[in-house]
Structures are given as C-alpha cells and as structure tokens.
C-alpha cells in the first residue's frame, strides 16, 4: 500500500480538522477507534466496509458515513484495492458556539442511528463540488481560505441534515447470514459486557464453533473478539467516569474487569491517561 497524497488541515481557533488521503493498494484501519468528537467520512473513490457500533456497512463513492461521539468504528478493506477519502472531525463545542440557533439541526444526523447516507444524483454532484472546493482551498490557501473551508463543512452538514429528513436514505448494511449472526452477537456483547464472557461459552450460546466465531468476528468487524469486548468495557468505563461519582474500583467491576490492575493498564493504553486523570480532565 502506498499513499499518492495526504493533506491535513487544522486551525487552532476552529473546532474541526480535515484529513484527505488517497491510498493505492489494500488498507484496513489498525487503530481501535472511538472519540469525543463527531466524524463525517466522505468516500471520494473506491469501495470500503465500515463497521459502526454493531454492524458493517458497504460504503461506495459519494456516500457519507456519520459517526456519533463515543461510538466504536473501523474501516475495512473490501478486497478491492485503492480508495480516496476525506475525513472531517467536528467538535460539538464549536458547532454550539458558532451556530447556537442551528446546532441541533446540524448535529442531529449523527444521532439518528443511520450512519451511511447515499444521495440522489443531483445532491451527489452538489456534495462533490463541496469536497472539491475543500480540497482546493486546503492546497492553495489563498486569502480567506479558512472562511471558505468552514462554510463548506457547514454546507456538508446541512446536506446530511436535509437528506436524513427524507424517507429514502436506508444504509447499505451487509445482510449475509454471517453478518447477521455477528450483529446479533455484538448486540449481546453490548448488553452483557459487565458479565464474565468467554469465547467458547458465547459460541455455544449462538450454536456455532469457537473457531468460526473468532474468524468471522474478525473478518466482519475488523476487531478480534477480545479486542472488541475490551473496548466496549473501556468505553463504558469512560462514560461512568464522566457521568458518575462512583469510585474507580467500582467502575472497573461494573464494566466487567475483575482485575483492577488489568483495568488500569488497559485504560491507560487506550486513553493515554489513567482513569483518575481522565476523570479530572472532564
């Protein structure tokens, strides 16, 4: 895999950044990924698989992927090489401060449970013009480019908000029997992560072999079974640290970590700070 170009824009005074990359060859994300900002992913060329929350979607050129805050996600290779994408990370505080009368409308698409948007031809052309404008402004940086970038980002959010109000925006969710089975398993994990869970028992519950579960889970989501379970436990721990006064030992137990030392090490590896420091930063 090589990268013909990779352009990045961030302004310290703004609450968003833009990452535009073209890749040749095969690529899958290797980073375990959820974060405190919104993510708008636009696929310019190629095809991708995108795992969001508890299921996998087939993403094609021109699609938006809208990822809510604190939602686990990862992009995967479809088996077809080469893709180009633009990623826009958006801070809630920036939208609320800059557009207080319209923040709810601009951010609503991220929380509707429909992460992949496919647009009709006319709207697709409009969105592509905005993406082209963003790319050009990032590269040329002529006077006023920062203003144009901000306006184009807001235009993309408006496109998403208007389209999600229609009745014809069903996502391209993968529907094979294997994907359907893994979706059920993932929903079970999200409901029962605080319990003692091991792969053989889970496989037996869903009448499949441990080997098949392990292999299919990885190929469908991009995560190993243990990676995914650990991440949803850590995500739940982050929420409890932000939203409750529970002590850290109790949080570890409530999120499925029987060993406090393992919890602390896992949390720091993922968040880059200790649980106590994470709570103090909120």
Give an overview in words.
This is AraC family transcriptional regulator. It comes from Paenibacillus psychroresistens. Pfam families: AraC_binding (PF02311), HTH_18 (PF12833). It is a single chain. The chain folds into two domains: 2-163, Regulatory protein AraC (Jelly Rolls, Sandwich), CATH 2.60.120.280; 177-281, Homeodomain-like (Arc Repressor Mutant, subunit A, Orthogonal Bundle). The chain is globular. The longest helix has 20 residues, at 121-140. The two termini are 39 Å apart. Helices cover 46% and strands 20% of the residues. With 282 residues, it is of the alpha+beta class. The mean pLDDT is 90. It has a six-stranded antiparallel beta sheet. A three-stranded antiparallel beta sheet has the order 5-4-7.
What is the CA-CA span between the terminal residues? Answer: 39 Å
- From the 3D structure, determine the CATH topology of the largest domain: Jelly Rolls
Q: If you compute it from the alpha carbons, what radius of gyration comes out, rounded to the nearest whole angstrom?
A: 20 Å
CATH class of the largest domain: Mainly Beta
Described by strand count, sense and barrel closure, the largest sheet is: 6 strands, antiparallel
Oligomer: single chain
Helix/strand order:
EEEEEEEEHHEHHHHHHHHH
Mean pLDDT: 90
Number of strands: 9
Helix amount, in percent? 40-55%
Number of separate structural domains: 2
| Sheet with most strands: strand arrangement | 1-2-8-3-6-9
Strand proportion, as a percent range, falls in 15-25%
Q: Can you tell me the CATH superfamily of the largest domain?
A: Regulatory protein AraC
Q: Which secondary-structure class do the elements indicate?
A: alpha+beta
Please tell me what the overall shape is. Answer: globular
CATH architecture descriptor of the largest domain = Sandwich
């Amino acid at each position: 895999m090589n990268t013909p170009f990779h352009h990045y824009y961030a302004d310290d005074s703004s609450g968003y950044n833009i990452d535009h990359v073209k890749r040749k060859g095969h690529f899958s994300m290797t980073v375990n990924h959820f974060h405190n900002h919104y993510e708008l992913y636009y696929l310019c060329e190629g095809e991708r698989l995108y795992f969001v929350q508890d299921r996998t979607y087939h993403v094609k050129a021109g699609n938006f992927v809208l990822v809510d805050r604190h939602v686990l996600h990862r992009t995967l290779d479809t088996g077809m090489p080469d893709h180009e994408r633009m990623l826009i990370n958006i801070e809630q505080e920036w939208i609320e401060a800059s557009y207080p009368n319209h923040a709810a409308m601009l951010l609503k698409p991220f929380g509707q449970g429909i992460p992949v948007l496919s647009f009709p031809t006319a709207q697709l052309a409009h969105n592509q013009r905005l993406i082209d404008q963003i790319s050009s402004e990032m590269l040329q940086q002529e006077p006023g480019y920062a203003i144009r970038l901000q306006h184009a980002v807001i235009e993309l959010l408006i496109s998403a908000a208007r389209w999600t109000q229609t009745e014809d925006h069903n996502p391209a969710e993968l529907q094979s029997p294997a994907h359907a089975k893994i979706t059920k398993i993932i929903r079970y994990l999200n409901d029962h992560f605080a319990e003692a869970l091991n792969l053989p028992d889970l496989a037996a519950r869903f009448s499949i072999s441990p080997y098949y579960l392990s292999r299919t889970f990885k190929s469908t989501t991009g995560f190993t079974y243990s990676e995914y379970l650990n991440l949803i436990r850590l995500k739940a721990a982050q929420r409890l640290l932000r939203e409750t006064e529970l002590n850290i030992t109790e949080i570890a137990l409530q999120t499925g970590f029987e060993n406090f030392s393992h919890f602390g090490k896992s949390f720091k590896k993922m968040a880059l700070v200790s649980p106590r420091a994470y709570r103090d930063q909120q």
